[in-house]
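W.,

You were right to be curious about this one. When I first looked at the sequence I had no strong expectations either way, so I just let the prediction run and decided to look at it fresh. Below is the sequence, 118 residues in total, followed by the output.
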Amino acid sequence: QVQPVESGGGLVQAGGSLRLSCTVSGRTFSRNAMGWFRQAPGKEREFVAAINWSGSSTVYADSVKGRFIISRDNAKNVVYLQMNSLKPEDTAVYYCAATLGLTPQGSWGQGTQVTVSS
């Protein structure tokens, strides 16, 4: 069972950067693809980015492609989301989860709030 704990969110001006971290408990982390998802107020949770178990393959939503970078450190059981050139529409609670394809699996963490001011 993968249990994620997200951190690193905050308030940033448009054009700024943040790096989110997701620390995962459980001995199966290095065997799981992982993904980031986000939920803006009044909207459904949506896919942001995913990375395979080894870190050799990544996929991004069109809305963040070229601005966000997902990476992982299997020795530390952490997956990261580097967010650059942030826009107000990136404002959301960000979650990580194990993924199967682009579909989240297992438990959600509490999420971390990202707010981008214009």
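Here's what jumped out at me. The CA atoms of residues 22 and 97 lie 9 Å apart. And, maybe more interesting for your project: The two ends are 39 Å apart (CA to CA).

Coffee later to discuss?

I.
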